[in-house]
Amino acid sequence: MIRFIIRRLVLLVPVFVGLTLLVFTISHVLPGDPVKLAAGPQATAEEIASLSREFGMDRPLPQQYWHYATGLLQGDWGQSVLTRRPVAADLKIYLPATLELVFAAIFLAILIGIPAGLISAMTANRWPDYLTRILSLASIAMPRFFLALVLQLIFAMSLAWLPLNGRFPIIDLPPPTITGMLTIDSLLAGDWLAFTTSCEHLLMPALAMSLSPLATITRMMRASTLDVLQQDYVLAERALGLSQSLIILKYVLRNAFSSTLTVIGLYIGWLLSGSVLVETVFDWPGIGLYATKAIVTQDFMPVMGVTLSIGFIFVLVNLVIDLLYGVINPKVRYQ
Amino acid sequence: MSPQQSAHPSRWQNWQRSLYRFRQSGLSIAGLCIVLVLLVIAVAGTWIVPFPDHITGGINTAARFKPPSSLNWFGTNELGQDVFTLVMAGARVSLIAGFGVVMIAALLGGLIGALAGYAGGWIDDVLMRLTDLMLTLPSLILAMAIAAALGAGLDNMVFAISMSWWPGFARLVRGEVIAKKEDLFVQAARALGASNSRILFRHVLPNVMSPIIIKMSLDMGFAILAVAALGFIGIGVKPPTPEWGSLLSLARGYLPDYWWTAIFPGLAIFFAVLGFNLLGDGLRDLFDPKARR
């Protein structure tokens, strides 16, 4: 087991190197001159040249890559041409906000999806099942940004039950920063009011993001439950008089873990990347909005930083999931 | 019917059986109907809409923000344009863009996957490692960055999205090609002295078309969604092109009072994606018995 983990960790090195190389290449192949844009329309050729020297963009590309890659290792993720802020410092602020959103969305998807899938399977081919299946088909087709707008329209603008946008009211005092995720920080600080406030802000964006994974978990849970209930060993247990609820507890819920893990692995990249849509609607200050701003101004260091950090998280999460599969299911053997 | 016939059903019988199965599935039929309606609107759009001049940017400031009525079914927007007209015209933009994305992605991914699977060895290794790396990159952000760098325009946006879309096709086609390349008919062609490119393009690829076409139909809905997402972010098409995502994005500023400017473009995206998803699921069930439940 330990050897397997070490082997997988070593294999991450070429993946990370490849990712940096790919992202660097793409961002330099694309047309567009960030220095020229940042210098402004009235800049002289000399000003542009000195700015480009300052950011090291006058050097040959391999040298630039080497500088960038070695910088990454030392925590230097480059600098925004426009704001002149270091990208690493910006990511430290914006990444936790997006992660909080993604975790909350996955949490909601599991919380609703597993019982929904169970109910759907238990009532297979009767109306609760039909309703769940139609709802999950619709959920996958529903654009996140449209759902986000509809939620805003109903719960913030019409009913005024939830705040319209943002993460935390400007006038209130946020909890001290530990993880950067407001819900967790406020719990750590024991600040109940800050916790409920941040949850209120989190609910609608998280719900808008969770719809697709929710539908997928529901469908997988329904399929695996139907599958398990038809297994011989379950039929045997039932013949021996075991109650339905015990069967579900003993056999069916075990599948909940693996389908949940699969969905997290499938959706983590999709959620991190797609959060930009929900962040745009709710003015949620995460990496999506950060990347959008940088993309519009063709400020490519922040874009590379966001792309790489999402790529790294994607690879790491999938490694952890591979390891967890083995923990919950001994049939999955390590080689 | 002779026993021989039942053991090897003719192509026509297969078709009839598939058609029967397809007709049995209400959801597939619903998907087909939505897609057909969309196609009709996309083709006939400019002739059947009530205010064709609004598509090209014509405005009517006297009739701003009129709620839905018998004259303006979906109301009017901030420029007095008929929202129904714009939404209908958006069908053409979305279908063309979605189809373009899927087509380019299938061609590029198919070429890379076929080359990797057929050549094997280091070519396979290099191409597939590249594909895997592309799959770990955040596709939406990548598409946004490419589209922004290339500049506004529907064609640039389609190109940008397909650049993040091809890896899925590459993986699919590689697997299919590897499965087919040792088949007897390929060996026979090789024995007859056919060149590698002839074997690949005339013998192997035609035999792996059906999974590719199924994936294309399944991806079509999500490609339309990606196009709308980029339009919503404001990268890609610019007004007056009546693109559903950008219509929705503009309407955001006029909520909650002028809700009709947002709801109808949003519903259009929803139904288009739903229709293609249902149709794609139905087609997959027809051609891939293993996926059927």
Q: If you had to describe this structure to a student in words, what would you say it looks like?
A:
The complex is a heterodimer of chains A (335) and B (293). Chain A has helices at residues 2-29, 34-39, 45-54, 61-73, 87-122, 127-141, 144-158, 182-188, 192-229, 232-239, 244-282, 287-296, 300-328. With 335 residues, chain A is mostly helical. Chain A has two domains: 2-73, no CATH class; 91-164 and 208-334, MetI-like fold. In chain A, helix 5 packs across helix 13, helix 6 crosses helix 9 (192-229) and helix 12 (287-296) packs antiparallel against helix 13 (300-328). Chain A is globular. By secondary structure, chain B is mostly helical. Chain B has a single domain (3-291), classed as MetI-like (MetI-like fold). Chain B contains 13 helices and no strands. Chain B has helices at 3-7, 11-24, 26-48, 83-119, 121-136, 139-150, 154-163, 166-180, 184-191, 196-204, 209-233, 244-251, 260-287. In chain B, helix 9 (184-191) runs antiparallel to helix 10 and helix 11 (209-233) packs antiparallel against helix 13 (260-287). Chain B starts with a helix and ends in a 6-residue tail after the last helix. The A-B interface holds A 15, 18-19, 22-23, 26-27, 30-32, 137-138, 140-143, 145-146, 149-150, 152-153, 157-158, 223, 269, 272-274, 276-277, 280-281, 288, 291-292, 295-296, 298, 300, 303, 306-307, 310-311, 314-315 and B 27, 129-130, 133-134, 136-142, 144-146, 148-150, 221, 225, 228-229, 232-233, 235, 245, 248, 252, 255-256, 259, 262-263, 266, 269-271, 273-274, 277-278, 293.
